[in-house]
UniProtKB/TrEMBL annotation:
It is found in: Membrane. It is a multi-pass membrane protein. CDD domains: SLC6sbd_Tyt1-Like. Signal peptide: none annotated. This is Neurotransmitter:Na+ symporter, NSS family. PROSITE patterns: NA_NEUROTRAN_SYMP_3. Keywords: Membrane, Transmembrane, Transmembrane helix, Transport.
Length: 474
């Protein structure tokens, strides 16, 4: 049976952008920004997106298009090593782990969207009267698990439709709808009193805060950048494997990053002015910020019921565009490596994530761990593995794949890009991991940077010199 491919270039770009344009931008981004110094976090985040996220995105594209297989098969076949195949298989685990908390948040969104729609008929959405207590009552427990299952069912239905009739068709509708609705809301919220304070909080460059908290801001900014760009999980390897012809990977990657960052900024231009216009503290962070703070703002606005429907409709579309990519990773592994039919693979994985997500929905502490520490570690570690593979296993082949269809301008950056993904960015990613573990607080920032450089250097030297790896590392 022939392997599926994208029907159009636009379909691939929108699908990849849809994976990036998700809850990471609209749900996670505002409260991460508020919790980490506002504009200082935004500045670091944008630098990480440009310097780490985009090269990493291209690294995954190169692997996927070169192999035309899922992450497990791509790393195994391109290297000739079952060990690399095992590393690639971790992507399937990452997809299940991400979906295990993501679908819980998706269930919250479905619930808020539903009560927003029926609210005008029943006398008002219940969260408008008491947003904090309402979220506390529905965020975890049996009902949260049931809505998680509903969101998962919608996700599974789209993935079951396949690459062209499911993922591509769905994202061609969802991504433009998200952009149009966000632009409309951003245009409306600018007219609200107090919105200027929200723009200032979000956009003003606060150098003092950045200098005082640079180390503590870097780790969450890196995690957020990787989460929103959907790199490190193997999504972009999987999506690039469905490319049926040579296209400019640098161009496609730049468009996807631009769309992703644009949605994140648009979300901030909606969320923060809306909060400030109603005197709501944006520092009330945490996973419930979107639901508690925004709902509180809707309650004080004329026509808040209608605005809530539009807003949570946007968030629901963004959530689905990302969740389908998370499910597609392990589905591709089972279809390519196990010879399973797409229907069987989707069914089995829905059953598995229904179980793991239900456990997460019943346990707030587990949810916080999976959505925070585990997600950051898996994505950072996954991207580190993909970049070392592209830089040191593929090596010259990565440049060959990079320049195919890129044109003269894109080809100029091929060698600097290879050096960046093979040496510079791995040091940054290891530094991020060490910072997450708190090493910088014990020995200082620059000693931690030095430790990251030494660790990366030792790994590269050992793997390229060890006789047991000959034939695997080139």
């Amino acid at each position: 049976m022939a392997r599926e491919t994208w029907a159009t270039r636009t379909g691939f770009i929108l699908a990849a952008a849809g994976s990036a344009v998700g809850l990471g931008n609209i749900w996670r981004f505002p409260w991460m920004t508020a919790d980490n110094g506002g504009s200082a976090f935004l500045a670091v985040y944008l630098l990480v997106v440009l310097g780490v996220g985009v090269p990493g995105l291209l690294g995954e594209f190169v692997i996927g298009r070169r192999a035309r297989r899922n992450p497990m098969g791509a790393l195994r076949d391109l290297s000739g090593s079952r060990y690399w195949g095992a590393i690639g298989a971790v992507s399937a685990v990452t997809g299940v782990a991400l979906l295990s908390f993501y679908s819980v948040v998706g269930g919250w969104i479905l619930r808020y969207l539903l009560v927003s729609i029926v609210g005008p008929v029943t006398g008002g959405a219940p969260y408008l009267a008491s947003p904090g207590p309402y979220f506390d009552s529905i965020s975890f427990g049996v009902e949260a698990a049931l809505f998680h299952l509903g969101f998962l069912a919608v996700t599974g239905g789209i993935v079951f439709g396949g690459v062209r009739r499911g993922i591509e068709l769905g994202t061609k509708v969802m991504v433009p709808a998200v952009l149009v609705l966000l632009v409309g809301m951003a245009s409306w919220v600018v007219t609200q009193p107090g919105a200027a304070a929200g723009y200032q909080f979000f956009l003003e460059f606060d150098l003092a805060t950045l200098q005082a908290n640079a180390a503590s801001v870097i780790a969450p900014a890196a995690g957020q950048a990787l989460f929103t760009l959907s790199v490190g999980a193997g999504t972009m390897v999987t999506y690039a494997s469905y490319l049926g012809e040579d296209r400019s990977l640098p161009f496609d990657g730049a468009v996807i990053a631009l769309l992703n960052t644009g949605v994140g900024v648009l979300a901030g231009l909606v969320v923060f002015p809306l909060l400030f216009s109603q005197g709501v503290d944006p520092g009330t962070g945490g996973p419930g910020a979107l639901f508690v703070s925004i709902a509180g703002a809707f309650a004080a606005l004329p026509g808040g019921d209608l605005l809530a429907i539009v807003f949570f409709g946007v968030v629901a579309l963004a959530a689905l565009s990302s969740s389908i990519s998370m499910l597609e990773i392990p589905v591709a592994v089972l279809v390519d490596e196990g010879g399973w039919s797409r229907g069987t693979a989707v069914g089995v994985l829905l059953a598995l994530t229904a179980l793991t997500g239900t456990v997460t929905a019943l346990n707030p502490a587990l949810f916080d761990f999976v959505a925070g520490t585990l997600a950051d570690l898996l994505l950072t570690g996954g991207l580190l593995a993909f970049l070392l593979f592209a830089g040191w296993v593929l090596g010259p082949d990565s440049i060959e794949e990079y320049v195919a269809g890129a044109g003269a301008l894109g080809a100029r950056f091929a060698t600097p890009w290879l050096f960046a993904i093979g040496v510079v960015i791995p040091i940054f990613l290891v530094f991020t991991l060490l910072t997450t573990a708190g090493l910088d607080a014990r020995i200082g920032v620059w000693p931690t940077v030095a430790a990251a450089a030494v660790l990366v250097g030792a790994v590269l030297f050992g793997l390229t010199r060890n006789a047991s790896w000959r034939g695997v590392w080139r």
